[in-house]
Specification:
This protein is mainly beta. The protein is 0% helix and 41% strand. It has no helices and 24 strands. It has strands at residues 6-11, 19-23, 28-31, 39-41, 54-60, 63-71, 74-78, 86-87, 98-103, 111-115, 118-122, 130-131, 150-155, 163-167, 170-174, 182-184, 195-198, 204-208, 211-215, 223-224, 234-239, 247-251, 256-259, 267-268. Strand 13 (150-155) and strand 14 form a beta hairpin. It is globular. The two termini are 24 Å apart.
Length: 271
């Protein structure tokens, strides 16, 4: 791999030594040996990723060879482990970029895309999309694509019709699979939410420029959990797949942190 701007990483849940890396301007790379060596996977992406960004790479939960990529040029899908890619944008109109993707774990045909034009939903594994923005933003903001920018989408693992969308203008949830949205988290310290994740137990985490917050009741109440953090500008959050209480947090300014108690306390990971 010769490209230095790696934006997204995805680890194959079946074979953890297999890693995919999405870049800025150089498509997708794949490693079979834990990152020691990389091969380019550009077939189908060559003409569209020269100036674009791969924002996210997502696995189909039932088929490890099927992947989806959210890019600034749209959604792409691969059925052969990334060897070839096809654009999947039928029905997506009036948008500038796709920022994030989410899959219903119980019904993988159902997907959600967070875009510069709000949320789109697919019921056929990204072959076609339909806008799902009812209630997502106020009518006076509908003319501004940036006001609709969705930074993250997550499906509740235990209640698949419960979906959360983080935007540049607040946090929203739907309990009917995207038919309508309700704004939540009005008391959060920062309404420009850049990071969101949900644990297998349903704990919801959101963060931005003013620290991390957690909700244990589907967004009704929130607790700020920043004890031990030297920087409140949060850039990424990962949850250990085998232990929902173990979290990893990336900051802009003071590096990487780990928590073993669901975010109640943090400890900086040093070399």
């Amino acid at each position: 791999m010769s490209h230095s701007r790696v934006i997204a990483l995805a680890i194959d849940p079946r074979f953890p030594a297999t890693i995919y890396a999405g870049t800025k301007g150089d498509a997708i790379y794949k490693s079979y040996d834990g990152g020691h060596r990389w091969v380019a996977q550009k077939n189908g992406l060559d003409d569209v990723t020269v100036t674009s960004v791969v924002n996210q790479i997502l696995f189909d939960p039932n088929d490890g060879n099927r992947l989806f990529a959210a890019t600034t040029m749209g959604v792409f899908a691969s059925d052969d482990g990334g060897d070839t890619w096809k654009k999947r944008m039928a029905g997506m109109t009036d948008i500038l970029m796709v920022v994030t993707l989410a899959i219903n774990p119980q019904r993988p045909d159902v997907m959600y895309a967070g875009t510069s034009g709000g949320v789109f939903k697919s019921t056929d594994r990204a072959k076609t999309w339909a806008k799902a923005n009812q209630g997502l933003v106020s009518p006076e903001l509908l003319s501004s694509s940036r006001a609709l920018m969705v930074s993250a989408v997550h499906v509740d693992p235990g209640t698949p019709d419960l979906v959360y969308a983080a935007t540049l203008n607040g946090l929203y949830k739907t309990t009917d699979g995207g038919s309508s949205w309700t704004r939540i988290g009005l008391g959060l310290p920062d309404q420009m939410i850049s990071v969101m994740n949900i644990s297998p137990r349903g704990a919801l985490y959101v963060a931005g420029r003013q620290g991390l917050s957690r909700s244990d009741d589907q967004g009704m109440t929130w607790k700020q959990i920043n004890v031990g953090l030297e920087s409140s500008n949060i850039r990424s959050l990962a949850i250990a797949p085998q232990d929902a209480k173990t979290l990893y947090l990336g900051t802009n300014g003071s590096g990487l942190y780990r928590s073993h108690d669901g975010g109640e306390t943090w400890h900086r990971i040093r070399r």
